[in-house]
């Protein structure tokens, strides 16, 4: 297992377009997290899955954001009608229960 | 609130020890973590400490936890240029340990 994998690594999109990111967690990990990191800041929690169930969503996750983990393995994060303020690094992490989370390399989104 | 605080910058000379400090807010955090982020990369878990421990040593890394003062520190012995990165302190909130809250990060610069 090569760790948490995210795709794409970089995405440039025009304002108003929809984008979707994918995360493949470490295979035996039942928990999956999405975070957002803007320049000069630490990562901010967005949402969390335990298996296929989305158990918590941050107030940061507006109605334009939706995340799924349909089979309890990979997850997708979709942003609809992107805005310039959505430009950030989107990080995915996974863990087995409450043990330490391992992060992917992230998807850097630039909205122009 | 859920604030994790760190000083933003630290410069040390190669071969010296680095000490990065962090204060956190939630005394119920079970684990506290140190992550390293190199430019353009995702977060790499460096080490973590269970909340009932005072100290943990792992090769050049020493973590000290003062639970009474909610203070966590990371000491890097014999700091090398490859240690230059941003170091994030994180605590694990949520009823089931699913919400990692990160500090703003300390940018460590190692001078030759």
Structural features, described:
With 112 residues, chain A is mainly β. Helix content of chain A is 0%, strand content 50%. Chain A has no helices and 11 strands. The radius of gyration of chain A is 13 Å and the shape is globular. The termini of chain A are far apart. With 112 residues, chain B is an all-beta fold. Helix content of chain B is 0%, strand content 56%. Chain B has no helices and 11 strands. In chain B, strand 7 and strand 8 form a beta hairpin. The mean pLDDT of chain B is 89.
Structural key phrases:
heterodimer, A: seven-stranded mixed sheet, globular, B: 112 residues, mainly beta, six-stranded mixed sheet, 0% helix
Set down the secondary structure blueprint.
The complex is a heterodimer of chains A (about 110) and B (about 110).
Chain A: E1 5-7, E2 10-13, E3 19-24, E4 31-37, E5 44-50, E6 53-57, E7 65-68, E8 75-79, E9 88-95, E10 102-103, E11 107-111
Parallel strand pairs in A: 2-11
Antiparallel strand pairs in A: 1-3, 3-8, 4-5, 4-9, 5-6, 7-8, 9-10, 9-11
Chain B: E1 5-6, E2 9-13, E3 18-23, E4 31-37, E5 43-50, E6 55-58, E7 61-66, E8 71-76, E9 85-93, E10 99-102, E11 106-111
Parallel strand pairs in B: 2-11
Antiparallel strand pairs in B: 1-3, 3-8, 4-5, 4-9, 6-7, 7-8, 9-10, 9-11
